[in-house]
Write a structure and sequence with these properties.
The protein has 479 residues and is α/β, with parallel strands linked by helices. The chain is built from 15 helices and seven strands. It has helices spanning 14-21, 53-71, 93-96, 105-110, 147-172, 181-197, 232-240, 298-311, 332-347, 358-364, 382-392, 400-430, 432-438, 443-451, 453-460, and strands at residues 222-226, 245-250, 264-268, 284-290, 312-323, 368-378, 463-472.
Length: 479
């Protein structure tokens, strides 16, 4: 009965007949498990597995369903909307023309980072003292330490802890003056004191080219104030010369943010050890720097002067104003403090007498028309000295107007001497965290030490010198 449905070996194989009935590619569909023949060439009729009629019927139905699916029209997807053209960046005006020789104020301000760099202001040399470690032999378990020994151990631990704290703070110092509002008030008062001592002017460099000594004689003037602090000089100059642009930079942001002239800009920037500034070449007409030696090492001075030469416009001017760190005195306490102050700055690789060599520093680095001057600031003793001079003069020989003028000058000198003494005393207070470590004094002992200095200043006629140097970049740039 099976032979009537299935062919024998001499007839056409069944799988060939099934392939004719199913017009599909062998790789499109897997063979159903109806009858699997061996793939070897030695296949015989005995290897053919019989299949029921129901399976064949299922195959035919599947074949018909596949044909209907293939004949069904596949829907065409709707056409995609064209993408909008990608906007091309606009061409800036400076790309269409050559870069100007002097950059604009906007590009100068954009060259300064908005955030403060983490680079320290200067290289710090560790101030270390010889420390002795107290080593005791191990005590027996049941032996109690005597009160004197316990006190000795406690005091030694406190002393070593204090030394470790002092060394930690010394390592963390990048600027030895305290940065608080008291220090900023001192800098503002110092600004007005220096202006009075230098003849009532805010600058000494002849920055104008027409001998008018005025910023208003030339347009597009850009001025840089390095180490501007609270910005007293910058804002005052911006108010006096509204047509010029003033830019102040400092490592701390104590300068005003909102209330300032619109032609005055402040940026926070720390000058690194290499002394580089973030400004393009030939950017400024005038560079002003004052009381910046506390933040600079000896090597940084030369690098910074070279940077001034680079960023100044040909024919631009630079003005440096610095003080002698060492006061002129013959009194014991003041001389001892001077020695420690010089020693501490030497450990920091700083030059305490750089103010005396500002003109030389400018000349050897390519500046021309170098000029220098200095003013002596008596520390609180001018009143007594003037009184002694007036005793030698006979007031009866003076006219009333001359006598009034003499009294006025006396009051001015007396007030300036008082302000100079107060200013220097506040400076020593601002140096207290660092200088007390150098002098090996506690905070209380340091305060008591400096309280007795004003009396020595009057007795020894102590004074300090402030130096000012101006120089010009050659009109034909060497770069």
């Amino acid at each position: 009965m099976l032979s009537s449905y299935y062919p024998m070996a001499d007839q056409e194989p069944f799988h060939a007949a099934v392939d004719k009935l199913m017009p599909m590619r062998p790789m499109d569909y897997a063979l159903p498990p109806l009858m699997m023949r061996s793939r070897s060439s030695s296949a015989t009729s005995s290897e053919v597995t019989p299949v029921s009629e129901e399976a064949i019927s299922n195959l035919r139905r599947n074949n018909s369903a596949e044909k209907s699916i293939r004949q069904r029209a596949v829907p065409t997807p709707p056409p995609r909307a064209p993408l909008p053209p990608t906007p091309r960046p606009s061409i800036m005006h400076h790309q269409l023309s050559c870069h100007p020789k002097s950059p604009s104020v906007g590009s100068i301000l954009a060259s300064i980072p908005n955030k403060r760099p983490t680079t320290p202001a200067s290289t710090i040399h560790d101030i270390r003292r010889p420390s002795s470690t107290l080593q005791l032999p191990p005590s027996p378990p049941n032996l109690r330490a005597s009160p004197s020994l316990r006190t000795m151990i406690s005091s030694a631990n406190l002393r070593m802890k204090r030394q470790r704290q002092q060394q930690h703070h010394a390592n963390a110092w990048g600027y030895i003056l305290e940065q608080n509002h008291t220090e900023q008030d001192r800098l503002v008062a110092q600004h007005y004191l220096l202006r009075m001592m230098f003849g009532g002017v805010d600058y000494n460099a002849p920055v104008s080219l027409d001998n008018s000594n005025s910023f208003g004689a030339k347009s597009n003037i850009v001025v840089l104030d390095v180490g501007c602090g609270p910005g007293a000089w910058t804002m005052e100059m911006a108010t006096s010369f509204p047509k010029a642009t003033f830019i102040g930079i400092d490592k701390d942001d104590f300068f005003p943010q909102d209330i300032k002239p619109k032609n005055c800009h402040f940026r926070q920037y720390t000058i690194g050890e290499d002394g580089t500034l973030p400004f393009p070449d030939n950017s400024f007409d005038f560079i002003y720097q004052r009381d910046f030696n506390w933040a600079l090492t000896t090597d940084m001075w030369t690098r910074l002067i070279n940077e001034y030469m680079r960023i100044l416009k040909p024919g631009g001017w630079v003005e440096l104003v610095e003080s002698d760190v060492e006061t002129k005195s013959s009194m014991r306490m003041e001389c001892a403090m001077n020695d420690k102050l010089l020693e501490g700055m030497a450990l920091r690789h700083q030059e305490p007498h750089i103010a005396r060599h500002l003109s030389t520093l400018l000349a050897v680095n390519g500046f021309r028309r170098v000029q220098s001057q200095f003013q002596s600031f008596p520390l609180g003793w001018d009143k007594e000295q003037q009184a002694e001079k007036e005793k030698q003069n006979d007031p009866s020989t003076l006219t009333p107007s001359e006598l009034a003028h003499q009294q006025k000058q006396k009051r001015i000198r007396s007030e300036l001497a008082r302000l100079a003494a107060s200013q220097y005393l506040f400076l020593l207070q601002s140096l207290r965290p660092w200088l007390s470590l150098v002098m090996n004094l506690s905070t209380d002992k340091y305060n008591n030490y400096i309280i007795g200095l004003p009396e020595e200043w009057r007795q020894g006629q102590t004074y300090t010198n402030w130096h000012c140097a101006t120089a010009q970049k050659p009109p034909i740039s060497r770069f």
